[in-house]
Amino acid sequence: MALYRSAIIGCGGIGGLSDSPGDKNIISHAYAYQSHDNFELIAGCDINQDNLSEFKNRWGDSVKLYSDIDELINKEAFEVISVCTTTSTHAEIINKLLLKDDIKLIICEKPLVATADELNLLKSNLNKFPDKKLLINFPRHYDPGFSSMAKRINKNEFGRPLSFNGVFVKGLYHNGCHMLELIEYFLGDIKTVSVLSNQIVQNDIYGMYSVETANCIGTVANFEPENYSIFDLDIYFEKGRIRMAEAGHRLEIHKPAKSKIYPGYTEIYSNEVIQDSFYRRSYHTVEAARSYLEDNKINGRTVFEQHLLLSEKMLILKDKFCSNIKTVTFK
Ligand SMILES: NC(=O)c1ccc[n+]([C@@H]2O[C@H](COP(=O)([O-])OP(=O)(O)OC[C@H]3O[C@@H](n4cnc5c(N)ncnc54)[C@H](O)[C@@H]3O)[C@@H](O)[C@H]2O)c1
């Protein structure tokens, strides 16, 4: 059994401070590495000393700490690394990591980059290092519950998709990438996105959008409520409905049945709830990394290339919608 030495750059929320050892929910990369038998967390790096000390408190004295990425790269040997820093630093950090011989796989937080220039440089550097593997952390993609749902859709259990509605908080670029990733995972490549309403807030976009995929047309809407968080997706099919709620912890399947109220009518009723596996979300990402390194049970290269294309689409949407262009069509 391979044991991969792993490190984390960016020891804030998603890097290591969103959970603690023993918690039920595995949210951070630190907890994911520590929970998985094939990984050993050896180091963390952050420019914020308070976060570094708290990271050490939670994840143990054996984890070596660095406040300088070059020092981490020069002093430590590791095969897997997570990039969990602020989005605008991802590309520069990955470009450095690609030059380190012993690194086999990089897990980068979403969004992959902040600008098109960063993406273009990163793509050309990735081409120079075809043996280096990269995964973007879209955790629903690697979750067994979501994967089983994708398989059931592909096997046509629910028939033709008819429509969908996604609702989420935070910006379309920063958080909507999770939503559009999920829509592509379930319903095929996104072909056209049109603005129904749109406003620019802090360099990101909010509103309501119609989204046409290879198989279906639906809407997504995002807003910023003051006192709760939301990430819901509802998909209607010929033979039922899939409803994702509670950020992905609740996956329901609804099927048509004789109406309990209206004689002669058929309605759709909840008839199955998929057991929550998303509480181990980051564990599953790390397991996908192991699989990509070893057995290709997840076809990591294909998944990454799909996510790279999505990253490009997200940048184009942000750019066009910020320039008041109302419809974007992709090839
Ligand atoms: N996949 C998900 O569901 C998910 C969830 C939350 C956050 N994120 C993404 O993860 C990233 C981090 O988000 P967060 O909420 O953990 O932010 P955070 O601010 O809590 O943590 C970021 C950490 O990176 C450190 N940092 C910044 N620049 C650095 C550098 N050059 N070198 C070393 N350390 C540096 C900061 O000091 C901070 O400790 C963002 O890209 C965000 O979009 C993804």
What would the keywords be for this entry?
2 domains; Dihydrodipicolinate Reductase, domain 2; single chain; Rossmann fold; 331 residues; alpha/beta; binds nicotinamide-adenine-dinucleotide
Task: Tell me the layout of helices and strands.
Blueprint: E1 4-9, H1 13-17, H2 29-35, E2 39-45, H3 49-59, E3 64-66, H4 69-75, E4 80-83, H5 90-97, E5 105-108, H6 116-128, E6 133-136, H7 139-142, H8 144-154, E7 161-169, H9 176-187, E8 190-201, E9 204-213, E10 217-223, E11 231-237, E12 240-245, E13 250-258, E14 266-274, H10 281-294, H11 300-322, E15 327-329
Parallel strand pairs: 1-2, 1-4, 2-3, 4-5, 5-6, 7-10
Antiparallel strand pairs: 7-11, 8-9, 8-15, 9-10, 11-12, 12-13, 13-14
Helix pairs in contact: 2-10, 5-6
Nicotinamide-adenine-dinucleotide (NAD) is lined by residues 9-15, 45-48, 51, 69, 84-87, 89, 109-110, 137, 139, 174.
